[in-house]
Design goal:
Length: about 260
């Protein structure tokens, strides 16, 4: 496993119950794992514990087999590329300059970027179909372009694992699908990916495994067909749903109107 958490428990000061309670989760090379659940279910807290941003009350998180608490931030960044949900850059940079920020974990404090760094930036921009944007100011990008460029910055780190927080938020259907196709391709090439998302149906089509959290605990985990079941989803989300099967075999979730009776599986 590139990233693994074992029996992680996180409790915030003064809280009556843990935000994360005994959760185990792992991501291997070439695997896309989707972390899903209602608002406030503990997804963000779990990811922060996995990446060493907060110290768990119990349990341990490891990156490439090493306790995350022992890793310097630059060393962690050489292993894990993170694309957060929201980001407001302090300065307006050109796209190539912004993506070059992903090379900082590989450079010393005063070391200027070299040929390998420029090559990594070019490869990342080309891989995300953003090479033609390289001279554009980042404040001129559309939502879909901005997501591709932020992903390129993470890829410029040349990490072994990507962590994506709501990567399709605010994207239209085309740009959401383009982004997930790109991520799926990167994963097929051996990159591990942990994706936090509310998009259950998209996650079901792209993820090998899903982990469903409910009030800080694992409500279900496994293949999408094992996780996205009508009884479990209705209980966890507190709303009736029907679950149907798409032609590729993936489960698809349909929220029901009040009084409506589902006809799915």
């Amino acid at each position: 496993m590139i990233l693994e958490g074992r029996e992680l428990t996180v409790r915030y000061p003064g809280a009556g119950r843990p935000a994360v309670d005994g959760v185990s989760l792992g991501v291997a090379a070439g695997e896309l794992v989707a972390l899903v659940g209602p608002n406030g279910s503990g997804k963000s807290t779990l990811v922060r514990a996995l990446l060493g941003a907060i110290r768990p009350e119990r349990g341990e998180a490891t990156v490439a087999g090493r306790p995350v608490a022992t890793l310097a931030r630059a060393e962690l960044a050489r292993q894990v590329g993170v694309v957060v949900q929201r980001e407001e850059p302090a300065f307006v940079l050109r796209v190539a300059e912004f993506v070059e920020l992903g090379r900082y974990p590989h450079l010393g404090a005063l070391t200027p970027p070299g040929a390998d760094d420029r090559r990594a930036v070019q490869e990342a921009l080309q891989r995300t179909d953003a090479w033609d944007l390289r001279d554009r100011p980042i404040d001129t990008l559309s939502g879909g372009e901005w997501q591709r460029v932020r992903l390129a910055r993470a890829l410029a780190q040349r990490p072994r694992l990507l962590v994506l927080d709501e990567p399709t938020a605010a994207l239209d259907v085309r740009h959401a699908m383009e982004l997930l196709e790109l991520v799926r391709g990167l994963t097929a090439e051996g990159l591990g990916t942990l994706m936090i998302t509310h998009e259950l149906n998209l996650a079901a089509r792209y993820a090998e495994r899903m982990v469903l959290l409910d009030q800080g605990r694992v409500a279900a985990q496994g293949r999408p067909t094992e996780v996205l079941t009508q009884p479990v989803l209705t209980r966890v989300f507190g709303w009736p749903v029907a679950v149907t099967t798409w032609c590729d075999g993936s489960p698809q979730v349909v929220p029901l109107k009040p009084g409506e009776v589902g006809t799915g599986n």
